[in-house]
């Protein structure tokens, strides 16, 4: 596998760079959108009667009984499907994955984190390329029980991210369990597959019932999820070996470490992300999980032999009883929240200074009030051009949103603390 490890990073970076150049020269995003958006939009409109039937109650009931039963019916299903949706949302996994790391299942946790980042990037990219609408509200009744759901409703529809993520992450968890605990009979395996299938179907029906997606969005989400899951099963071994290898001496760049590679990958992915027809929060979600992936990779490749090797104690074992695990959670959660706050504060102070020094024109849509609605290009016009300034001049000369970098560093710091800082604190506290 060593040859594969040394080859695929260069191929990946070259391919993404080629895509960025080709997409810019030939306006590929607009061309793909022109081919796909009209058809998907027609399907969303055609699915509207089906969505209304899913949301409707028993039409055979009459009078006051209809109103009272329908209110109870809608309230119960609204709550049930909203809870299910929250259980497979990005905020849920953001809280679940650190706990999975601290439970001793580091390989599963890091693979799920990278898979989540991959799913989030691919799903949101497709959404913004196609830029197809969600079901129209009204006539469809849209239920947004949380702030996260309200932000999700501002994105485009196809594919359903909840369905895509559920297929990939539950599928990988099932794969991990069957691979590491093979002593199960056929009945147990069939039950696990049945439960996963049932949960995916409930998520799909729930997204339609809540008015967040049409049938074509759900089908596309499940289909893309299956393709991504199959691809991940082929490459996850190479990815994991590369991450835990640290400095890879066989790679043709002698000093090209895992961290440098992932930093380059993160930068290229940001430039490769397609521009939507209208602004949506999708790019912000990608930036956050892109930062999480970078922080996890950076921390893991530095501390793998200390805290994340295959022989670390796991929950329910004599070395890691439940009481100790609870202590880890009580110490770890506040710590990573503090690191997230500090990382954001440092990035808000440092990034504008760095950008001004390099002559990069920046604006801020939210985080830095002094940069809202204006760029910093004029502030650096009088500075003498150095080597770094000349290098920066090779990029497109437009005002970049500094909030993207702040968000990336904020979540990178949070993720790094999950796998590096917090485990070291556990070690000092004998947790």
UniProtKB/TrEMBL annotation:
Membrane-protein topology: Multi-pass membrane protein
Keywords on record: Endoplasmic reticulum, Hydrolase, Membrane, Transmembrane, Transmembrane helix
Top-level taxon: Eukaryota
The UniProt record lists the keyword Hydrolase: yes
SMART domains, sorted: acidPPc
One GO MF term attached to the UniProt entry: sphingosine-1-phosphate phosphatase activity
GO cellular component terms listed in the entry, alphabetical order: endoplasmic reticulum membrane
Domain Phosphatidic acid phosphatase type 2/haloperoxidase: 109-233
Locations listed in the record: Endoplasmic reticulum membrane
Chain segments annotated as transmembrane: 6-26, 81-102, 190-212, 218-239, 251-273, 320-339
Pfam families recorded: PAP2 (PF01569)
Family: Belongs to the type 2 lipid phosphate phosphatase family.
Protein name: Phosphatidic acid phosphatase type 2/haloperoxidase domain-containing protein
The keyword Transmembrane is assigned to this record: yes
